[in-house]
Amino acid sequence: MADIIVFKTTESYAIMRPAPDSALSTQQTGQKDVPPGVAFWIIDDTALPADEVDAWELTLGEASGTGGTYHVT
User: What is the 3-state secondary structure (H, E, C) of the chain?
Assistant: First the structure.
């Protein structure tokens, strides 16, 4: 079980796995690496459907964040 980032592209969904040795949290990774202005969701990888990604109809609820919003502090 691991947190992954899911976001919708123009044609399908994309899945992003943060690097295990990253100093950034999953939230920060999504803010940094998801395309700017695109909503993303952080979910447990066991919650993904087993079907082909093109057949997914996900109900994800409120987004976890938006891409392009990470700022180094």
Answer: CCEEEEEECCCCEEEECCCCCCCCCHHHHHHHHCCCCCEEEEEEHHHCCCCCHHHCCCCCCCCCEECCCCCCC
pLDDT digits (tens, 9 = 90+) for 53-65: 666 666 778 999 9
* Other residues' Cβ atoms within 10 Å of the Cβ of residue 65: 21
State both tokens at 63: 């987004």
Integer Rg of the chain from CA: 12
> What sign does the dihedral 24-15-69-35 (CA atoms) show?
positive
Paired with 33 in beta bridges are none
- What percent of the chain is modeled with pLDDT above 90? 49
Q: Which two tokens stand for residue 27?
A: 């939230």
Residue 1 predicted with pLDDT over 70: no
Q: Indicate the pTM of the whole model.
A: 0.82
